[in-house]
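name: query_chain
kind: protein
chains: 1
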Amino acid sequence: MNMQKVVKYLVSFILFPIIIITSCSKDDGISLDSGKIKTGPRKEVHRQLIPVSGGTIDIPNTGTPVDEMTITIPENSYTNDKEFIIAYYEILDHAYGSKFKPVTPLIEVNNGGDFADRVMYLGVQTSASPEQKLAPFYYDRVTGKLESIPILASFDGVIAIAVRHFSLIVVGSFEKEVIELGGSYSTYFDPKINGWSFANEGNWVEFGTCAGMSIGAAYYYQNRKSSLRLAEHFDNPAYGFRTPDRPYDDVEGIRFATLLQQLFDKSWQGAYGDIFESNFAGSDEDNFWSMIYGIYFNQDPQLVCVAPKDNTLTGHMVVATAYEFNATEVNISIYDPNYPQYLGNLKYDHVSKQFKPYTSAENSIALQNGFTYNFEIIKHIPLSTVVSTKEVDRLFAKTGNFTIGKDVFPNYNIYAEPIDNRY
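structure:
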C-alpha cells in the first residue's frame, strides 16, 4: 500500500471540521548528549522551503527508514518562509529498558525550532506489529527526556501525529498486556503538596482558571517537584508569614494561574484549537492508552481535557496522576482544580473500551451551586503540546519580583474606614 496515500487519508480525516473547546529541545544541532539513546551517524535525506502559504513535504522513496514520510504545514503556521531539513539517526541502543521499543529511527526535522501558530501533521511508517500500541515522543538529547506527542490516527503501520514544533522525534511501541499485568502505578502527586492552595473560583479576569491551574500543577510537578511545594509557595512570600487557611490572599499564585489560563486561551484561538479539533475525533481507547502510558513511562501527571457531548463549547481541564486496573474497569486518580485538596476518580470501562462520564463544573462556584456537567468526551493532551518551557518560566519569573499580572489585573488601593466616630 502507498504510505503517502495512507498518511494523506489520515490527515484529511483529522482535519475534518469539528467545533469543540476546553518544548522544544534546547538546540537541534546540540553537542551535549545525555547518552540515553545511542545512535549512528546523522543521515540527511531532504531539504525543502515552505512558504507562509503552507505546503506538504513528501520524502521520496530512496530506500531509507523514513521513505514516504509526509509533513503537512498549514497556511500561516509561521510568519515567514521556513526551510525544513529532514534527517535521521539509526538507533543502536537506549537506556529505557523494556518500557520502550523504538519502531522508527530517531527523526530530525530542523526548521529553527520555533513553535508554530497552527498545528502541523506528520505521518510516518513504523515497523510495529498489529498487537503493539504506538507512542510518539519528542526526544531531548541534553536531558534524555522523552515527551509525549498526540497520536491522531493510525492504520496499517502508519501513524499520524500533531506537532507545534519540530526537533528530534521517535515512535516507540509497547505491549498493553505488560501494563495491565502491572496492575497500578502512581506518580505520588499529592494535591495538598503539589496542587494549588486555592480553588478554581474564577476572578476579575477569568470566569475560571482550570487550564491554568492544571498546566501549572503538571508543569511544576514534572520540573520542580523536588524544590517547589506549589500548595504553599505563593502563601504570602513577601511578608514572611503564612495563612494556610486563607487562600484568597495568595495573590501571586492566583495571578500566575490566571496568566497561564490566558496563555492557554490565546493558544486555543490558534494551534491548540487545531489539536483539540483533531484529537477529540480520536477513540477513547487510543486516548486511554496514551494517558496510561504517559503515567507509566514518564512517571509524570498527564493533562486531560473533558467536555459534554451536548454542549461542546463548554470544557474543563484536570490532571491524571495514577491508575489501577481492576477486573472490568480502570480507576484513574484525577486532580481537579474545583477540588484543590483532593483526588477524584475517572473510570474507564475495559470491556466497552470507553470512558465513563466524569462529573464536574466549569468552576468551583458553579459546582457549589449545583451547575454541573457529565463530561462524556475525555481526551489526553500532552503538556508539551500546550505550552513551551520558556513561556511558563517567563511568567514564573514575574512572580518572584511581584510583577505578575500588573498589566492584566486592575490597580487598586485598600482603605480602612473606622465605624467608631471617636477615631
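note: The two ends are 88 Å apart (CA to CA).
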